[in-house]
Write a structure and sequence with these properties.
With about 120 residues, this protein is mostly helical. It is built from four helices and three strands. A hairpin with a 4-residue loop joins strand 1 and strand 2. It is elongated.
Length: about 120
Amino acid sequence: MLLHRITPLLVLLAMAACDPRVRSDVDTSQPAAADPVQQLQALAEGDAIADARTAFARGDTRLWSWNTRQQRIVPAAAQLADGQATRTAPAMSDTLYSQQHLQARQRFIDYATQYNSEMLRLLAQ
């Protein structure tokens, strides 16, 4: 008797669990993050000097950096001062995904070098 009452409920739960529209592992409350290569492209297209000055005025003195398999790269900074914070650039690992990614990476290296040079100059004043 009890089995006859529970069986329809179990079947319904099993069907709901198989529904591809039901995804408990995806947080839909937040918008999806942009593609890291697109984020890198957007950064590389910015005005490095103006961005560094704006960040400095806000009290954000972090330098741009990225990690390779061997080391952390901080362009324009021969040696970091104790406590100097960095921010890690997106999509700057050793892996290249496309020609577009390579071009964005090269532009970002120029951007980060200019940005860090300006930030270091501002910090030295």
